[in-house]
Write a structure and sequence with these properties.
- The complex is a heterodimer.
- Chain A has strands at about 5, 10-15, 20-25, 30-35, 45-50, 55-60, 60-65, 70-75, 85-95, 100, 105-110.
- Chain A is mainly β.
- Chain B is mostly beta strands.
- Chain B is globular.
- Classes of the chains: A mainly beta, B mainly beta.
Chain lengths: ~110, ~110
C-alpha cells in the first residue's frame, strides 16, 4: 500500500489540552497537507507545508516536517470540543497529480 | 459557489446491479478524483482525471469505470456491484498553478447487499 501511517489511531483529551498526532510517509514529496473530517462529512483542508519548510503555524495549528525521517506532526493547542474529528495527513509526491492519504487519527475532545 | 457536489447521498444496491455516482464542481478546476473510504483504511484513490479528456487509475480501480464528461463533471460507475464495494465514496477537485489543496464533496454512502 502507498498509504502513510498516522499515530495514534485514536486520541482522547480534555478541553484546553494540546493534541499531537504524527504522520509517516514513504516517498519524496512536494508538500504535505493536513485535512480534517467531521463525522459523516467530506474532508476539509487545514494546512499545507512545503518540502523545504520545517515548521508552519496557522491559528492554533502547528505543523512540523522532517523530510529526512519522512515524518510530520500536527499540534492543536488549547483544544476545544469542536475540534472533535478525524485528522488525515496527505502527501503530494513528486511527478504526480494526486495525494496519498494516511489512515487518520480520531480525536475526541471532552468538555 | 456550491463547490463540489455529489449525488446521490445514499444508495443501496443488490449484488450485480449497476449504478453511476455523479460529481460536479463549479470552481473551474482541472483535476478531479474519486476516493473510497472504509473504516480504518483512510481514503484510497480509485481513479483520477488530470484534465478534461484524460483519466488514470489510482490505487484501487478494479470494478470501477469513470467518465470525465466535461471540465465540471466526473462520474464513477459500478458495472456489477459487489458487497466489497460497500463504502463511502468521495469526489474531490483541485486547481492548478501551484494550488495543491483538494476540495471534497459530501460523499455518497453506498451499501451493496
Amino acid at each position: 500500500s502507498q498509504q502513510g501511517e498516522e499515530d495514534p489511531q485514536a486520541l482522547s483529551i480534555q478541553e484546553g489540552e494540546n493534541a499531537t498526532m504524527n504522520c509517516s510517509y514513504k516517498t519524496s514529496i512536494n508538500n504535505l497537507q493536513w485535512y480534517r473530517q467531521n463525522s459523516g462529512r467530506g474532508l476539509v483542508h487545514l494546512i499545507l507545508i512545503r518540502s523545504n519548510e520545517r515548521e508552519k503555524h496557522s491559528g492554533r495549528l502547528r505543523v512540523t516536517l522532517d523530510t529526512s525521517k519522512k515524518s510530520s506532526s500536527l499540534l492543536i493547542t488549547a483544544s476545544r470540543a469542536a475540534d472533535t474529528a478525524s485528522y488525515f495527513c496527505a502527501t503530494d509526491p513528486f511527478g504526480t497529480d494526486k495525494l496519498i492519504f494516511g489512515t487518520g487519527t480520531r480525536l475526541q475532545v471532552f468538555p | 459557489n456550491a463547490g463540489v457536489t455529489q449525488t446521490p447521498k445514499f444508495q443501496v444496491l443488490k449484488t450485480g446491479q449497476s449504478m453511476t455516482l455523479q460529481c460536479a464542481q463549479d470552481m473551474n478546476h482541472n483535476s478531479m478524483y474519486w476516493y473510497r473510504q472504509d473504516p480504518g483504511m483512510g481514503l484510497r484513490l480509485i481513479y483520477y482525471s488530470a484534465s478534461e479528456g484524460t483519466t488514470d487509475k489510482g490505487e484501487v480501480p478494479n470494478g470501477y469505470n469513470v467518465s470525465r464528461l466535461n471540465k465540471r463533471e466526473f462520474s464513477l460507475r459500478l458495472e456489477s456491484a459487489a458487497p466489497s464495494q460497500t463504502s463511502v465514496y468521495f469526489c474531490a477537485s483541485r486547481g492548478t498553478g501551484g494550488v495543491n489543496e483538494q476540495f471534497f464533496g459530501p460523499g455518497t454512502r453506498l451499501t451493496v447487499l
